[in-house]
Amino acid sequence: MAVVESTIEASLNLMLTQLLTKDPDLIPSEFAKELAIIIGTAIKSGTVTIPLGVAVQVVPTTGTGATTAPATGTIS
Fold it and tell me: pTM to 2 decimals?
């Protein structure tokens, strides 16, 4: 799945709205913490797809081949 910009935007708007109620001295650290969470969540929401036919090297190194089917994975 692609990263959804509207989800990131909504998360940022909520974070910034909540920061308006915080002690001004705490805003920089709270902003950094919440932004890191938003970025991490956005990255982890994506998937990686490897298409059919991508060249691969196998062990032992004398073996080569290609993917035989598309594969997907998540980022953790």
Answer: 0.69
